[in-house]
Amino acid sequence: MISLFRKLNLPADYWEQYKAEAAGSLQQRWRRLSEGLLKDVQPDKIWVSIRTANRARDRPDQTPSSAERGGRTPEPEGDDGWPESRLTLESFLQGCTGKVTVLAGQPGSGKTLLMSFIGQQWTKGLGPIPSSHLFVLLELRQLNLLSDPLSLSELLFHHYLPTNGDNEAKQAVVDYLLSNPEQSCWVLDGYDEFQKKLKRHRVQNERLDSEKPRPVAELISGLLSRRLLAGSTVLVTSRVRDVVDLDGLSDKVGQLLPWDHREIKECVNNFFSGKDGNLAANAAEILFSSRHLLAMSSLPALCNICCVFLQHSLHRHAEKTKVPGEKAVGVKKKPLEIERKDAQTPDGMGGNESRSQKAQHGENSEETLMDGAKSRSMFSFTSAQIPSTQTQIYLAAVVAFLNRHTDRTGGNNAAEISGFSQSKFVFVSLCSTKFAWKTVSLPAAELCELSRVAWRGLEESRIIFLDEDVPLQTLQSSVKSGLFSQMEVRGRGGGVVNAYCFLHLTVQEFLAALRIMTSSDVSDADLKKKFSLKTRWTTKSDQKTVFTDSLYLYVCGLASSDCTPALEVVAKATGLKAAQNWVQKRQALVLKLLEALCRSASLTGPKILQLCHCVQESQNQQLAQQVVRVRPTLELRNFWLLTSDIEALAFVVNSVGTKDVGLDFGACSMELECLDILSRCQYIHYLSFRSRKYGDKFAEKLSSVLPRFIALRKLEFCGASLSSAGAASLASGLQNCPSVTELNFSDNNLQDEGIRHIADVLAKLQNLASVKLGRNNTSLEAAECLVKHVSSCSNIQQVHADGIKELTLTFSQKSESNRLLNQKWTKSGMQNLARSLARCPSLSELDLSGGEWDEETLKMLTQFVPNFSITDRIILNDSCSSVQSAVILTALLSDCLSVMEMNISLSCCNLQPIDLERVWRSLGASSDLSDLDLSCNKLGDKGLKKLLDFLPRLSKIQRVENKLLEFVFVFFRINRRSLTVSDVNKVCRKLVQCRTSLELEFTQYFHIYTETKNDFCSLNIKTDQSVSVSRLTDFSFKEENFVLLDRLNQILQQSRQLSYLDLSGNQLEDEGVRCLLKSLPNIRVSSFINLSKNGLSQQGALHVATALCTCTNVSAVEVSLGEDERCLIWFRQKGGEKTLSVRDSRLQCDHLLRLANIVSDCLSLTKVDLSGVLISDAAAQTLTRLLPRLRSFNSSHCVWSAAGRLQFIETLKDSAGKKSEFIFIFRLGGWRMGDGGIQKLTGILPGWKDLRTISLSKNLVSDPSGEKLLEALSENNLRISTISGLLSLSRAIMSLKNLRKIHLTSVRNSELSAVAASLSHCPFIQDVGFGWNNCGDDVALELAKVLPVCHDLTRIDLECNSVSAAGVEALVRALRCCPALQVIRLWKNKVSPNEAYRFSQMERRLKFSST
């Protein structure tokens, strides 16, 4: 029994034995890693932010729009990388057993160290992992070295920790592990450095066979997906950007927060305390005054690099200032100067901000590191002498590391490397405030070899190097100096080998960048391949590398002219001949690539920010100016902003000086300290914050820096979490911003109290143009408050309130108007409002339309109307809902002398005839009613009689609307067929009594009876009346009614003046038109006569054309016998050129001959339109005789014979060569002209200097002929071109420098893209028509690129193409730089209705159709 019992417990024994071996290995590992630690690891003082999983949102580039009415904008789902809540690491890891927990952090934040510490705690029975568990720590970067498949057992015993036992022991451990997976903890350290990322499997529940060899990536995936060792504890560390791969697999995700200032000071103190304690205070002061050093030091690994750099620099400076015979530490110099005079902080505010940051941690601003007061007298080293860019800091730091071991072993003169030299041999003297390189002291050979290793690793995506990868001398010096970290890795058989990696990933990337800039091994193509901006928006589809994507940043930094001397020295060490020229060419290439990105208008917010970082590193002011020139407003959406990001923005924004620049932050989280840095951009003119993240604390901090924006004109703080307290803060800051013209605080929670805070400051802002305060959970009291301020703010032009949705103030020196729409009025509320309005010195308009009214409220308003100083009108639309309300209002006409006119709408009020009497009585003797709407009531004949009886008393009536009648100004319309003869007679007799001018319209009345004509005629011939407009349409003058046409002619000739006469649709036919044309010279019409839809034939069309000859004041004739049956005769009071248009008229040969004769008889005719006409040879001969005196000729879609076309072209050739003034508009569309005709036309064009517009659409033009044609056109001052069928356009269009308009149809997508690109050579282009080409996004993208340089462009037509949302988005981004562009037509493209609506909300100039 005892023997059997022991046998059954053997697996547990082996398990405990293996745990003991693992504990020993972890303790040894911790001793190695903890050696030289600057800070103790204290999990209860390490802060972690809780992150939520990415919610399947790819690119959060838009803040949601506001709710339609009264609602508040929903909060976006959170920016990438922003902490939602925080707790200690100790609390975060509680309860992690049996779960998958992810700890994210930036490279160098200490993730690997923390995992080793947790392992060391486990060995002591402490920490979150129970001692009964097996602790397995796998560095995934080491697993990259494993290429062969392996089983779980091999992973455990060959790679993690070989056991001292035999195969039986190994099997026993594996068996116990598989039976008790919950007793194991697997730490997967550095998922971001694992080259083989996770792939989702279709069958999630399929278990993995632990004995089957498989790729290491599949084993890792199995552990995370619980298909292997389900129930085990899994801890994963990763960079933030790679956490998206673990969505759906992790139970909890946390992010290590960077060090705060207290922790940084503690680290610096610990670094210097053991060796250079007297330098600690100076180092801390300099570090906190340098934005780059401070930002780097928030990460433990980089803080160590900064300390090494500062130690080296301070030692060198001390040696140079050492007095002979004394120790350096005893020398007294002038006090330590902490100033920022470099390009990053031109206002010298760095020191103040570091002290304020200390105060945030509860520290005394006077308190520094130990012996601070004493150390201040030691050195005159200034922070302004710190390198001005991150790239230069890395170069100085790497050099400092390389010289650590040489300093201690005697070394040589090469130790003088990153000097702050006083010698004039270098680039600055002692009085200079700029950092300089003493290039002769650079350890060029070591830099050259290290950069080669780093570049090869980057090319191969390797961060771990073996002995054979690095030359022995370089390896030894790098390990000794600390640039290389040494580790032990296990090979395939479990043996331990030495491996190395750079101190930090960014160090390897920097050295790789140095290789790019100093070695011909890296070609220009390789450089271009590596040079790209990275976005901060992380998606599962992104291709991620093991590196931090900082390579291009350091390349840009090394392209700075400040780095040129150092690069030349390193380049010479690589063996380059003419190193100086080569380096300068390579730098020029980088700047050229950077310039192309600066000019791109298609970059998203994150890439724009990365571009700012690159430009800042390059220190190139011209590039910075280009960034802002292309995008005057920088838009940033939905990502976490660091202080270094704001620094980069400040560098770019300040490059343009006082020129207008805007910053738009949408849902970007930032620390309050960022606003201090942002205030350095003092010439910003537009500043916007949109997100619920921005609340009262943010507003309070913003208010403290607002006065520093001395050029600020527009401030938006909308869609945020602003309450009345935040409004009070902003109001206090705004009173010191006199240049502000626009404020937008809409979609917050200001409530009435917050509105009062804003209103109180308005009087102090004399330049205000508008203030928006809508959707702020306000009541009518807020609107009343603003109205009260009208009396104190003389420049308020308008108060506009629409329910709770809109609340806007408009400012101007002109008279004011108030719009309070859709309010819930009460008697007391109206009383308060009326009293405020009575105090307003001058109002032009008061609009109180809509809302909820009762009679008592209306009475209260009318009582105060006599006290109002309103110069124009009061509008009460949709507020007069009853007869009693109308009586109350109409009484104002007689009771209030200041009320001169009134418009009353009583439509749909169920009025009876008796109700009209009450209205008439309320009007009294007044006749000032101007507009009366009685439509949709039950007045009947009795009501009509009462209306007509009262009408003569209304001398100022402008419009009366009824179901049967409508009167407007001088307008009278009868448009109902059901009126009887007696009705018409009655109306006419009443109208005769009216003393105003009349506009008459009789429509849809087919039978004019003899009984009517006497009254109708008397109406028109009264000498004291004037009929300005007559419309007599849809009658029939046929048969027995034809006699009335003569009477109509008499009436028209007796009228004093008509603006226009409409006789359309009267069945006049040819004879009726001919009869009317006889009287035409005696009819006084100022505008036109409309004879459309009268059944004209070709003969009738010719009758109308003769009016050009018979009537001197006829300026134009338009006739079309097509479907529209259009016929217009236009008039002009004075002489001038005349126009004839006869289109789609199916004219025969004899008709054309007669038409040609008519045209020849009209000597002032200069413009002829014969489009769509069949032209015979005889007619062509006659027309060609007219060409020499024409200025515009349109023969589009005409059908010519070959002989006629040839004769026409020959005449053009003769006329163009002889005439100094010739046709300037020429349209030959639809001729289907081939190469022969095109060649003849091409020969004419060089001498045709007056040609401005030519249309050649739908012709048969080959490529060679088309190119010759366009080449000839380029010699003209051509402004408008409509061409289709030409395939090689782009090259010729480049030479059309004066082109104003181009319309292209039936062009291939590829050629059209080239044409779009060529428009950048046409600076005066105004109208671009690319409709009906079936072009795609390529064309839209090309247009987006040229838009910023086409300053005169006003219209783009892309109708009926295949442009998708991607193309539209590019156009939207480009439109920000195109204020002159008025419309882009995008009808019938591949844009869904939802997308169309979204784009329309973003950019109102985009026009979409519903199909």
Automatic annotation (TrEMBL):
Keywords in alphabetical order: ATP-binding, Leucine-rich repeat, Nucleotide-binding, Repeat
Pfam families reported for this sequence: LRR_6 (PF13516), NACHT (PF05729), NLRC4_HD2 (PF17776)
Keyword presence, Nucleotide-binding: yes
Domain NACHT: 99-239
Origin superkingdom: Eukaryota
GO biological process: positive regulation of MHC class I biosynthetic process; positive regulation of MHC class II biosynthetic process; positive regulation of transcription by RNA polymerase II
Residue span of region Disordered: 52-84, 332-369
Protein name, per record: Protein NLRC5-like
Biased composition (Basic and acidic residues): 334-344
InterPro entries linked: Leu-rich_rpt, Leu-rich_rpt_Cys-con_subtyp, LRR_dom_sf, NACHT_NTPase, NLRP_HD2, P-loop_NTPase
SMART domains given in the database record: LRR_CC, LRR_RI
